[in-house]
Design goal:
It is built from 9 helices and 10 strands. It has a domain of about 80 residues: P-loop containing nucleotide triphosphate hydrolases (Rossmann fold, 3-Layer(aba) Sandwich), CATH 3.40.50. It starts with 12 loop residues before the first strand and ends in a 6-residue tail after the last helix. The chain is globular, with a radius of gyration of 19 Å. It has about 260 residues and is an alpha/beta fold. Bound molecules: adenosine-5'-diphosphate (ADP) and magnesium ion. Adenosine-5'-diphosphate (ADP) binds next to helix 1.
């Protein structure tokens, strides 16, 4: 599925939520969130630990059912769709728990991810043609994530930063129009952070990227809009400039944004 063939059906947003709520045995992690996330760009969610960011991602991707509320993907209500059904619509997420096969090479990891998508579709290609397509797509993903030169290495021998980039490669292997990245820079060195930020910017044209990130300098530099979560609710939404100037946000962040 290419981003070009799945552009918005005129709604202007990728996701819309209405009264979205998730409780865990009485504790409300996501509290009555009504939000539209516009199509395209890097849409970042920030907020303190425990604010409900990961839970919100889990609700959007179908990893968790909501306790209350509704979710739309473009013009389609997806509240009751399962995670794999949402993935088929083009909603892809990376996991903080890694999906990498450590004993396989970088190339094999990406190839499996590319193949999984092809196998899921009715396929009218001749076998040889198909093998060629898979190899070409695998190599293009390896180039995208900057791991082409490391393609023969065992995945488990990669640096932490390269493993996180491989994980992004596994996500973009299906060419999803919508990507959910939950703290992709966690634990990265400054160099790895820089390379991964470049990568996110390189893969963002023609896609919508939902990002959860703590590094406020990165957030300010690459976000189209920022949504601030606090104790399960939306505190503010705006451009980086608007968020920086927002008094409620400044109070919540104790001047970190100044
Ligand atoms: N599966 C779960 N069971 C119980 N509590 C959970 C579960 N997942 C998250 N929580 C709680 O919900 C709150 C929000 O968590 P989370 O969405 O992970 O926050 P964030 O990603 O913003 O740090 C936290 O207090 C967390 O302990
Ligand atoms: Mg989290």
């Amino acid at each position: 599925m290419s981003a070009a063939t799945t552009t918005a059906a005129g709604t202007g947003y990728v996701f819309k939520t209405e009264g979205l709520t998730r409780r865990f045995s009485g504790f409300t992690a996501v509290n009555n969130v009504t939000l539209e996330i516009p199509e395209g760009g890097v849409r970042t969610i920030i907020g303190p630990n425990g604010a409900g960011k990961t839970t919100f991602f889990n609700l959007l991707s179908g990893m968790l059912p909501p306790s209350e509320g509704r979710i739309w993907f473009r013009d389609r209500e997806i509240t009751s769709l399962l995670a794999y059904q949402r993935a088929r619509l083009g909603i892809a997420r990376s996991f903080q728990i890694t999906n990498i096969f450590g004993h396989l090479s970088v190339y094999e990891n990406v190839r499996l991810a590319v193949q999984a998508v092809h196998d899921g579709k009715a396929n009218f290609f001749m076998p040889e043609r198909r093998m060629g397509d898979l190899a070409e797509k695998t190599e293009s993903v390896l180039h995208d994530v900057g791991l082409y030169d490391a393609r023969d290495a065992n995945a488990e021998n990669l640096s932490h930063g390269d493993q996180r980039r491989l994980e992004i490669g596994l996500v973009i292997a299906s060419d999803p129009p919508v990507l959910l990245l939950d703290e992709p820079l966690a634990g990265m060195s400054p160099t790895e952070t820089h390379e991964t930020v470049d990568l996110i910017q390189r893969i963002s044209p023609g896609r919508t990227i939902l990002l959860v990130e703590h590094d406020i300098d990165v957030v300010m530099a690459i976000s189209t809009t920022i949504t601030v979560f606090q104790t399960g609710s939306v505190l503010a939404v705006g451009t980086p400039q608007e968020i920086r100037a927002n008094e409620a946000v400044q109070r919540a962040y104790l001047g970190e944004l100044a």
